[in-house]
Each structure stands twice: as structure tokens, then as C-alpha cells.
Design brief:
The protein is an alpha+beta fold. The chain is built from four helices and eleven strands. Strand 7 and strand 8 form a beta hairpin.
């Protein structure tokens, strides 16, 4: 397929960064309330990634994506306060997005009553959370330092992964089947057209894998697949409003990789196809 690109007249600057947030010691995994032991190894490393954008007027904002279950209010406030102090970044100019990964590490204050763990497990969680907060602030700073001229473009794809999870229950076939299978895609290119980053989204629980290992589930596999398709490019996944959808079927070996590849191909079709330029100014609200 021949790729058609558009150049934007807006003088954007964009910076991209990533940091590995894989725990260095065994830790309880989040998401499933019936777990009986900590993670059983690492099947895929997990990351925090950041995209910094600055428009022609100098207005700046940063998007952070992570292979985590979520950010608590305490975690968010801590990161935002540090970002304001270190980088002058107002809270309205910072997005923290977690993929809602059920195969990621437990962090403080996120569903705190979900597990009744021994004290030693919470000590591990405390250490990891403190280290994680430092890494997220670090990746914000790295993205801001990476700011360089860029062109932005947007397109929409489709992927049939999400299924309304109420249908998977007894009598569920008669229930509404509302799902959002759109795949929004934002491309970041250097002035000469080289692809630097791809931001893509999907609205579906990240609950495909449940094998006891740490990984990024289908969203992590999709990012990995896209980065393999486009060496040197950073792929950032944004979780959408998928509160009542699951990837179905699920919980069988290989399905996380399979759904990840399907989503990556859906994104790549947009990247290789027709997109429209994104112009400024940058507008934010909180």
C-alpha cells in the first residue's frame, strides 16, 4: 500500500521518551482478585512512555502512557506536583494514562482493599511505587528535552477485538452489545517525513492474559509489534472508555500476542494510509 502523507503548516515540536518500569523483584500482580501468589516471572517487559507537544506559541503539554492497571489520586498528585516544580508543567497540561493492565504490578492506593497481603508484600509494593513515581517524572523530563520540529497527523482505524462482556454471562445474548471498536491514531513525523512516534487507542479491558507472569497484555504486545514494524519508532497506547468490554475469547496461550498483532495491523493501516494534518494551537483543560 502506498503511504500518503500530509504536511502541516503548524510549527509543532514533539519529544518522545520511554523508561522501563519492569519490577526488579517478585511483586503481586494487579487486576485479578483471586491471585494466590506474586508474579511468576516476566514474559514481557513493561514501560512508561511520554509524548511532549509544543505549538507555535510555546504552549506545551505531555501525554504519559503506562502498562499499569491505573494511577491513584495520590500517585497522580505526586507526579503532577513534581512535574510542576521541575518542569513548570501545569496540571492541565499533563495526561497520565494507564492501559488498565491486569498483568502489571500492584501499586499503592490503586484498589487498596482488593488484596489482603502479608506486610512483606506491601513493603515490596511500597518500594516499587516510590521507584515508579521517580521513573514517570523522569520520562516526562526526557520527552521535554527531546522536543524537536515535527508534523502531526490523525486517522481512524477499526479492530474487532472488544466484546461487550455482559454477553459472556448466562442469558447475556439478549443484552445490548454496545462496543467502541474505533482505533484512533496520531502520527508524529520529523519535517522530512520520518516516523518518530505513533499514539493509538482502543476501548477494551486489558484482560486477555492471565498466566501469572508480568506482561503488558494485548496493549503491550501491540506496542511491541508496531515498534518491530517500524524500527526506531515509539508506540504509545492510550486506553479508552472500555468499562464493559473484554477481549473475547481470552485466557488461552497466545491470544495476547494475537490480539496485539491484530491491533498493531489496524494501526499500521492508518499509518500507511490517508491521514489528515493536525493544526494548532494546543488547547488544554482540566
Amino acid at each position: 500500500m502506498k503511504r500518503r502523507t500530509h504536511r502541516s503548516s503548524t510549527q509543532w515540536k514533539a519529544g518522545v521518551a520511554r523508561v522501563d518500569i519492569t519490577p526488579s523483584e517478585p511483586i503481586w500482580l494487579h487486576g485479578w482478585g483471586n491471585r494466590t501468589k506474586p508474579m511468576q516471572g516476566v514474559s514481557q517487559r513493561i514501560f512508561a512512555k511520554a509524548l511532549a507537544l509544543r505549538d507555535a506559541t510555546g504552549q506545551t503539554a505531555v501525554l504519559v502512557t503506562t502498562d499499569l492497571l491505573g494511577f491513584s489520586r495520590t500517585m497522580t498528585a505526586t507526579i503532577a506536583q513534581r512535574a510542576r516544580k521541575k518542569f513548570g508543567l501545569d496540571r492541565s497540561r499533563l495526561i497520565l494514562n494507564a492501559s488498565h493492565n491486569h498483568s502489571g504490578p500492584v501499586t499503592n492506593d490503586v484498589l487498596p482493599l482488593y488484596f489482603d497481603l502479608p506486610k512483606r508484600e506491601y513493603e515490596t509494593i511500597d518500594r516499587y511505587t516510590a521507584w515508579l513515581l521517580d521513573r514517570v517524572v523522569e520520562v516526562i523530563g526526557s520527552a521535554l528535552k527531546d522536543l524537536a520540529p515535527a508534523n502531526l497527523a490523525f486517522g481512524q482505524g477499526l479492530a474487532g477485538i472488544a466484546v461487550n462482556r455482559r454477553r459472556a454471562r448466562a442469558g447475556g445474548r439478549s443484552l445490548p452489545t454496545v462496543v467502541d471498536q474505533d482505533v484512533p491514531v496520531l502520527t508524529v513525523r520529523a519535517p522530512k517525513g520520518e516516523l518518530r512516534a505513533v499514539v493509538f487507542g482502543y476501548s477494551c479491558h486489558t484482560t486477555c492474559v492471565n498466566d501469572g507472569t508480568l506482561n503488558g497484555d494485548y496493549a503491550g504486545f501491540a506496542q511491541h509489534e508496531l515498534e518491530a514494524m517500524h524500527p526506531g519508532v515509539t508506540a504509545l497506547f492510550v486506553q479508552g472508555c472500555g468499562g464493559d468490554t473484554n477481549p473475547l475469547p481470552r485466557h488461552r496461550p497466545g491470544l495476547g500476542e494475537a490480539y496485539g498483532r491484530i491491533l498493531a495491523v489496524a494501526v499500521d493501516q492508518v499509518v500507511q494510509g490517508q491521514t489528515r494534518p493536525v493544526s494548532g494551537p494546543l488547547r488544554v483543560a482540566f
